[in-house]
Amino acid sequence: MNLQGKNILVTGGVQGIGRAIVDHLHAAGATLLVTDIQAEGGADLVQALGERVQYFNADVRANNSLEEALAWLSSNNLQLHCAVNNAGVEHAPKPLLECTEKDWDNTIDINLKGVFFCMQQQVKAMLASGGHIINMASVAGIRSAPSLSPYAASKHGVVGLTRSVAVEYARAQIRVNAVCPGIIKTDMMARAFEHMPEHTQKALVNSHPLRRLGTPAEVAQMVGWLCSDESSFITGQCFTIDGGMTA
């Protein structure tokens, strides 16, 4: 896959799936603008990858979180070709009646409102020349997720945003798609597993017919393909990477 000449913005790109996406896109030749709230991790990322990577400290909960990154593109007369809205957060699994307002607000603010704000800034930057926005959703955005009601609500919202904005801006040649991973082996998933008994953990793993968890690299490969010109006639779609969970 050749992504040389493409300028791609990735939110939440310092660790987990985001870092795997950054590594994969960089290896394919893209220039990366990476945002996160982990300044130290961002510095390490730049040092590790060297050229073609710019890091910007940004909290997606702010409606101007991408201002610095987009200004950097503009000052260098560069186009934003793709944006990957990956920044997200989980909460401890618990039934609805045990969920707190803090659980709800923090999850929705980052996972849904954050994507909403980022898409507004990205669409504005892409209006003149077109582009592609890829939102990180989840299988929890297309099916039930017991004990994860706020998380499921946030990811269902991302799916709805993806489909709606894809239709709104198709004539401007702005494509919008979503990626819906199953259970992926990340630090975030490990934290969730800490709150579950062993039999529940095994049941979740076995909910994938392939009988294993996915890897961040496997998600990154799908994102890389979507960032390439090979996906040029695809918009408004949700791609599941779930080992057969939703089959």
From TrEMBL:
Keywords annotated in UniProt: Oxidoreductase
Keyword Hydrolase applies: no
This protein's record includes keyword Electron transport: no
InterPro entries the record matches: NAD(P)-bd_dom_sf, Sc_DH/Rdtase_CS, SDR_fam
Database matches in Pfam families: adh_short_C2
GO-annotated molecular function: oxidoreductase activity
PANTHER family reported for this sequence: DEHYDROGENASES, SHORT CHAIN, ESTRADIOL 17-BETA-DEHYDROGENASE 8-RELATED
Family designation: Belongs to the short-chain dehydrogenases/reductases (SDR) family.
Protein name: NAD(P)-dependent dehydrogenase, short-chain alcohol dehydrogenase family
Organism placement in taxonomy: Bacteria, Pseudomonadati, Pseudomonadota, Gammaproteobacteria, Alteromonadales
